[in-house]
């Protein structure tokens, strides 16, 4: 007797997504810390750089599970982690990003296709990466306003709020995700499909 | 018997704290950190309270120094102090949350009517963090012997390759662990459609409510009266 | 009333589109019986356990024909989660069996899933803890336990919701001798409580006083069965022909012996090691000399510092005090890294490339010379046919040989092996022994960490037992080097 394959997430999938999300989160945190010293000059590209490396992890997870709800759950778990770390406002953003991504994936049935997954993940990250950016900008802005009272100004402020730089940042983000997904896809084929743990991409 | 605060209350306080730190001025930030230290002591984490107390005291001292000085780089130091104080309360409260036994956490989430699978996933992922570190350490051991590790500077010129060498074995291991865990879960009845019970009760005790009241009172005070003009 | 707990009739099963793992297998196990299922790797033991606990067909898919009855009920009528109520499973790796962070929650986990009332669960937990003498672990976190204690908790967790049937898949794989003894005692208790127990394992000596019957599988069929008395009568040669490991426990005292001193190749002088520079020392003032091409086996309980010693020898850790000399010259950690290689218990941690051949060439220059060397090594170790396959597709034994080959590419002078035989059947164990002896004769010095004393015995070489060497442990004593 053969068991029916369902199109909804089962407990096996939940655990898989959970574990991979954790790995992705840890990688993201570690890389963010590593780029911290460079933040001052590097800021528009820092988030993009970090997100590049989370793409292969996400892609592997998405292809392994291949079902509706993966991205949403990914976003939910990430959001909860951020909430625990004290930035609860990221949770609704990741949920929203995940939701929109899911809609795209559902329309194109692209759970195991590179193109739709890249687009979905890009949108998710645009929303998420952006919010990260903004939050740091807000807190830095606040601090520096405070500091103005004590006579200290900083021209780095421009980086954070100038629309030109924001645009650069966005472009960098999109480029990073697309390249990241491509990189991830190549890795997937080179190793995981070849080893038979992922059904062909 | 350590007083354990209901995880839902902990979570609630954590969230409120994280919003409050955004609106707090420097003086209020310091007081928020003081509350966090008290919270640590209340939760029974005396050692951590001492350590964090030392960190906060140093930071405040540095900040005080910065205010008096006129040098540019010291001002930058002030920004770092600010960051520490801003994240301090939240990190501390998250640390207390870490001590909550998994079963209790799950019971609390069940009472919030979250979907069962989501609860389980969250519980397992929280448990998985230290495991990843151990797995990665083992992988890096072999990688270092062969000169493939990211901890060796000459590999920084080839970031993509280095990533591959960490990523592939780590993912293979994660896959294996995920498979084994889910198989094990299946044999333990994870798919049972009945309502999940728990050995923990999920009542809010009066102690919890007192804590919340104290919290609210404290916050209202420090925000309406500026105790510390810093 | 039918007293048969497990009944398999004409079961044939194959994983998706592969060779049948079980061929027309029929087996009956009575209620209260304790059966050991053993055989060479790939014989179908694990597949059998999966059938009984429901992982086949609900988790692992494939073609299944035949009938399975559990406690009289046809398994086809069982939902996947219903299996767990009748059959409790314990696996080899405690790490991937635990869902919670502490002992109490873990014990309650399965019962909570099935919706038992809290009071009942608490009662059961109390009873089980008393029975298995794990009361003292009540408040602990799982991460702090030794592997033996973890296995006890895993068993306890199954006992709390008390199914009638217990299935254990290679439970002794990660345990030392003490752990094995504890495991055997627990199984005995379960038997006395009237449970039906099926154990699939390679190691059998620790079960000799516990099981009622031994079933031998080969290529998916039941080749032989013995009652425990019959089994005890079997001669050594008979066991050999079946590729079954020894019935007798090998005692450490049999292995510790005199050796003639030859000129020292590797000398450890007053070596003190720990996890890192500032951590408390695990091993103090170790003095040891090894000759070139010598094979030394190190054994001892888990947690004493065997792995740390291996890492330090390899150059992955710096020594805290003392020195490590090769041919009279002191070696820094960096130099040691170039001359040593370390083969871990689980090869998955050490494979990075996308094909067997590439794995050997990884990290080296792709010169003609290296290619030739790689080819030679692969042929020697019987891996040449697999040269284009992805390492992840190899069997456990093949992966191990591959990691070995990777090491040999570097022409190391010292090779350290960590538990090379856990989970191997007798035939493969002997193959590993031969491989090591071959290369030792070519001049490579081996340090092997193992608690597989049967394996150690097969070499007839020097064995060292690490005693508790740090004051933070219960009994203070020095490193015991028996000569």
Topology:
The complex is a heterotrimer of chains A (201), B (230) and C (483).
Chain A: H1 11-35, H2 39-65, H3 70-84, H4 90-108, H5 114-149, H6 157-161, H7 163-193
Chain B: H1 7-23, H2 26-42, H3 46-68, H4 72-98, H5 102-111, H6 116-146, H7 159-187, H8 206-224
Chain C: E1 4-15, E2 22-30, E3 34-39, H1 45-53, H2 55-58, E4 62-70, E5 73-74, H3 83-86, E6 87-90, H4 103-113, H5 118-131, H6 147-160, E7 165-169, H7 177-192, E8 196-200, E9 213-218, E10 221-227, H8 228-233, H9 236-241, E11 266-273, E12 283-290, E13 295-299, H10 306-314, E14 321-326, E15 329-330, H11 333-339, E16 340-343, H12 356-361, H13 368-380, H14 396-409, E17 414-418, H15 426-441, E18 445-449, H16 453-457, E19 463-465
Parallel strand pairs in C: 3-8, 3-9, 6-7, 7-8, 13-18, 13-19, 16-17, 17-18
Antiparallel strand pairs in C: 1-2, 1-4, 4-5, 9-10, 11-12, 11-14, 14-15
Helix pairs in contact in C: 4-5, 4-6, 5-6, 6-7, 13-14
Give structural notes:
The complex is a heterotrimer of chains A (201), B (230) and C (483). Chain A is an all-alpha fold and 201 residues long. Chain A has one domain (13-195). Chain A has helices spanning 11-35, 39-65, 70-84, 90-108, 114-149, 157-161, 163-193. In chain A, helix 1 runs antiparallel to helix 2 and helix 2 packs parallel to helix 7. The two termini of chain A are 28 Å apart. Chain B has helices at 7-23, 26-42, 46-68, 72-98, 102-111, 116-146, 159-187, 206-224. By secondary structure, chain B is an all-alpha fold. In chain B, 75% of the residues lie in helices and 0% in strands. Chain B folds into two domains: 1-101 and 201-230, no CATH class; 113-199, no CATH class. Chain C is α/β, with parallel strands linked by helices. Chain C contains 16 helices and 19 strands. Chain C has helices spanning 45-53, 55-58, 83-86, 103-113, 118-131, 147-160, 177-192, 228-233, 236-241, 306-314, 333-339, 356-361, 368-380, 396-409, 426-441, 453-457, and strands spanning 4-15, 22-30, 34-39, 62-70, 73-74, 87-90, 165-169, 196-200, 213-218, 221-227, 266-273, 283-290, 295-299, 321-326, 329-330, 340-343, 414-418, 445-449, 463-465. In chain C, the strands form four sheets. Chain C has a six-stranded mixed β-sheet, with helices on both faces. In chain C, strands 16-17-18-13-19 form a five-stranded parallel β-sheet, sandwiched between helices. In chain C, helix 4 runs parallel beside helix 6 (147-160) and helix 5 (118-131) crosses helix 6 (147-160). Chain C is globular.
């Amino acid at each position: 007797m053969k068991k029916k394959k369902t199109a909804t997430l089962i407990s096996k999938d939940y655990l898989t997504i959970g574990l991979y999300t954790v790995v992705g989160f840890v990688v993201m945190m570690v890389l963010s810390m590593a780029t911290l010293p460079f933040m001052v000059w590097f800021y528009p590209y820092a988030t993009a750089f970090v997100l590049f490396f989370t793409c292969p992890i996400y892609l592997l997870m998405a292809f392994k599970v291949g079902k509706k709800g993966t991205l949403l759950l990914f976003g939910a778990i990430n959001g909860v982690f951020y909430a625990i770390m004290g930035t609860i406002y990221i949770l609704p953003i990741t949920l929203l990003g995940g939701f929109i991504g899911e809609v795209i994936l559902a329309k194109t049935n692209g759970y195991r296709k590179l193109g739709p997954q890249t687009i979905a993940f890009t949108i998710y990250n645009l929303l998420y990466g952006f919010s990260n950016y903004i939050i740091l900008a807000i807190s830095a802005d606040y601090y520096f306003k405070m500091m103005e009272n004590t006579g200290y100004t900083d021209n780095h402020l421009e980086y954070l709020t100038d629309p030109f730089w924001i645009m650069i940042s966005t472009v960098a983000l999109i480029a990073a995700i697309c390249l990241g997904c491509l990189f991830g896809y190549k890795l997937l084929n080179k190793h995981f499909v070849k080893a038979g743990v992922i059904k062909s991409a | 018997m350590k007083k354990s605060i209901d995880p839902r209350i902990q979570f609630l306080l954590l969230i409120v704290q994280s919003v409050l730190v955004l609106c707090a001025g420097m003086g209020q930030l310091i007081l928020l950190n003081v509350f966090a230290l008290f919270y640590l002591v209340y939760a029974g984490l005396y050692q951590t309270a001492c350590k964090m107390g030392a960190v906060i005291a140093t930071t405040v001292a540095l900040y005080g120094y910065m205010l008096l000085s006129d040098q540019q780089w010291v001002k930058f130091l002030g920004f770092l102090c600010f960051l520490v104080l801003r994240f301090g309360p939240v990190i501390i409260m998250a640390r207390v949350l870490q001590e909550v036994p998994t079963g209790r956490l799950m019971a609390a989430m069940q009472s919030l009517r979250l979907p069962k699978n989501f609860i389980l996933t969250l519980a397992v992922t929280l448990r998985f963090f230290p495991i990843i570190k151990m797995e990665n350490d083992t992988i890096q051991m072999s990688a270092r012997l062969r000169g493939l590790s990211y901890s060796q500077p000459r590999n920084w010129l080839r970031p993509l390759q280095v990533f591959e060498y960490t990523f592939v074995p780590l993912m293979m291991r994660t896959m294996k662990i995920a498979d084994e865990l889910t198989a094990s879960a299946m044999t333990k009845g994870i798919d049972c459609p009945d309502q999940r019970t728990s050995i923990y009760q999920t009542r809010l005790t009066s102690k919890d409510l007192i804590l919340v009241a104290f919290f609210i009172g404290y916050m209202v005070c420090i925000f309406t009266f500026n105790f510390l003009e810093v | 009333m039918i007293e048969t707990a497990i009944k398999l009739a004409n079961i044939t099963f194959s994983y998706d589109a592969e060779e049948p793992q079980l061929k027309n297998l029929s087996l009956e196990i009575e209620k209260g019986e304790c059966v050991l299922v053993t055989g060479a790797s790939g014989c179908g033991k694990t597949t059998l356990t999966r059938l009984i606990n429901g992982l086949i067909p609900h988790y692992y898919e494939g073609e299944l024909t035949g009938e399975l009855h559990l406690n009289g009920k046809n398994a086809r009528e069982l939902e996947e989660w219903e299996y767990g109520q009748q059959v409790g499973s314990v696996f080899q790796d405690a790490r991937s069996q635990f869902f919670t962070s502490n002992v109490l929650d873990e014990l309650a986990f399965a019962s909570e899933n099935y919706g038992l009332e809290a009071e009942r669960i608490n009662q059961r937990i109390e009873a089980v803890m008393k029975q298995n003498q794990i009361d003292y672990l009540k408040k602990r976190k799982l991460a702090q336990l030794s592997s033996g204690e973890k296995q006890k908790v895993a068993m306890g967790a199954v006992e709390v919701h008390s199914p009638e049937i217990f299935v254990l898949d290679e439970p002794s794989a990660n345990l030392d001798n003490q752990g094995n003894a504890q495991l055997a005692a627990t199984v005995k208790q379960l038997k006395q409580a009237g449970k039906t127990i099926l154990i699939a394992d390679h190691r059998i000596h620790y079960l000799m006083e516990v099981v009622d019957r031994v079933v031998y599988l080969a290529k998916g069929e039941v080749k032989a069965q013995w009652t425990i008395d019959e089994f005890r009568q079997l001669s050594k040669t008979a066991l050999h022909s079946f590729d079954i490991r020894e019935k007798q426990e090998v005692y450490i005292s049999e292995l510790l012996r005199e050796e003639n001193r030859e000129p020292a190749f590797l000398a450890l002088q007053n070596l003190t090691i720990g996890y890192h520079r500032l951590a408390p020392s695990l091993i103090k003032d170790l003095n040891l000399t090894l000759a070139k091409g010598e094979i030394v086996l190190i054994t001892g309980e888990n947690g004493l510092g065997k792995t740390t010693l291996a890492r330090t020898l390899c150059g992955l850790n710096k020594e805290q005090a003392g020195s490590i000399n090769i041919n009279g010259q002191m070696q820094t950690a960096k130099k040691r890294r170039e001359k040593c290689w370390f083969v871990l218990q689980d090869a998955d941690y050490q494979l990075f490339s996308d094909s067997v051949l590439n794995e050997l060439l990884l990290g080296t220059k792709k010169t003609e010379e290296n290619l030739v060397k790689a080819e030679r090594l692969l042929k020697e170790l019987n891996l040449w046919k697999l040269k284009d396959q992805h390492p992840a597709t190899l069997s456990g034994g093949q992966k191990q040989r591959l990691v070995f080959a990777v090491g040999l590419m570097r022409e190391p002078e010292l090779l350290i092996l960590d538990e090379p035989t856990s989970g191997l059947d007798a035939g493969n164990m002997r193959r590993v022994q031969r491989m090591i002896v071959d290369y030792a004769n070519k001049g490579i010095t081996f340090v092997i960490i193992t608690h597989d004393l049967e394996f150690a015995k097969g070499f007839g070489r020097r064995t060292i037992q690490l005693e508790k060497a740090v004051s933070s442990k219960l009994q203070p004593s020095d490193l015991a080097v028996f000569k």
